[in-house]
Amino acid sequence: MSTYTQCSKEDLRAVKDALDVLNGRWKLQILIALLNGKRRFKEIARDIDGISDRMLSKELKELESNHLVTRVVIDAFPPVVEYTTTSHAKSLHKVIHALKEWGYYHRKEIIG
Amino acid sequence: MSTYTQCSKEDLRAVKDALDVLNGRWKLQILIALLNGKRRFKEIARDIDGISDRMLSKELKELESNHLVTRVVIDAFPPVVEYTTTSHAKSLHKVIHALKEWGYYHRKEIIG
């Protein structure tokens, strides 16, 4: 069993910072939906079960303000809007991987 | 820059499972507060800024139902209740570590 990390006040603040940015059940799912490259609003919405357009719009704005997603407007008629992850978002790779591993592990613990 | 993980449907479900269990801003903070061993309700409440007794009670019950916390009643007068993390909770070590690392990294990205 891996050893436990002790958490200083600064460490706890760092965990809280990460949780604040990634809060709620949608943000990581949106980032994962964008793993495979640029997507349009409707494409992202289709990929994530149960998310409303209003919620997706709010979450995309918050992800943008945290430098995790960029919004590109393509000059066409009508104009096309595409979303893509930033290089900063790639730093979430370890968090996504750790959550994924733990999700599998937890499901086995609970369901057996 | 670490390579990106592709996410299958099962992987996405595992991430969602983890997010559902750890949802909200309090659960990981409660688990971190219990890192150093058994604590009483009031001790945990004192450690976590802004959490109400009602919220702490609800979160502890959810953590218990997910095999992450155990509640021990000590036969004294009046009876004493202590909370401690389970061995299963120790498996969250990598998630807490990844969130902590990313929280520091993100603060530098945003604040510079």
UniProtKB/TrEMBL annotation, chains A, B:
Superkingdom of origin: Bacteria
Keywords assigned: DNA-binding, Transcription, Transcription regulation
Limits of the HTH hxlR-type domain: 7-111
Signal sequence segment: none
Any GO MF annotation of the entry: DNA binding
InterPro entries: HTH_HxlR (IPR002577), WH-like_DNA-bd_sf (IPR036388), WH_DNA-bd_sf (IPR036390)
Name of the featured protein: Helix-turn-helix domain-containing protein
